[in-house]
Design brief:
The chain is mainly α and 121 residues long. It has 4 helices and no strands. The protein has one domain.
């Protein structure tokens, strides 16, 4: 059992979901391209909301049963840690990755919010 493999798969699992969320936000913003300031403000609100959801998921991931995570499914039976160690390792890795992506979305939201000041109304 390799903890770096668990981190790698946690990153894969969370980044896939966050990628789809980011794509949805970007499509929404493109739909509002006729109103650039509204598009940026909407993008900022949606990114901040996503960051808040990810922060909550980071807090809850420590207590979530490890067998019910996508990360556990991605691990092959040979790679899976022992049960007494799995909850701590998987919960901690998912929490770290969720917080990392929450920070990315928060920064994106701040940049969109600042961008809304620059664009014409």
């Amino acid at each position: 059992m390799d903890p770096s493999r668990v981190r790698e798969l946690a990153l894969l699992s969370v980044s896939r979901g966050c990628g789809f969320a980011g794509l949805a936000i970007a499509c929404f913003m493109v739909g509002l391209a006729g109103y650039p300031d509204v598009a940026m403000e909407s993008g900022a609100i949606l990114m901040m909301a996503t960051a808040a959801i990810l922060a909550v998921k980071a807090d809850l991931s420590v207590a979530r049963p490890y067998q019910r995570t996508e990360l556990w499914i991605l691990l092959s039976p040979e790679e899976r840690p022992r049960a007494e160690f799995a909850q701590q390792l998987i919960g901690r890795c998912l929490s770290e990755v969720y917080r990392r992506f929450a920070l990315y979305f928060w920064l994106g939201g701040v940049l969109c919010f600042l961008g809304s000041f620059v664009l014409p109304e």
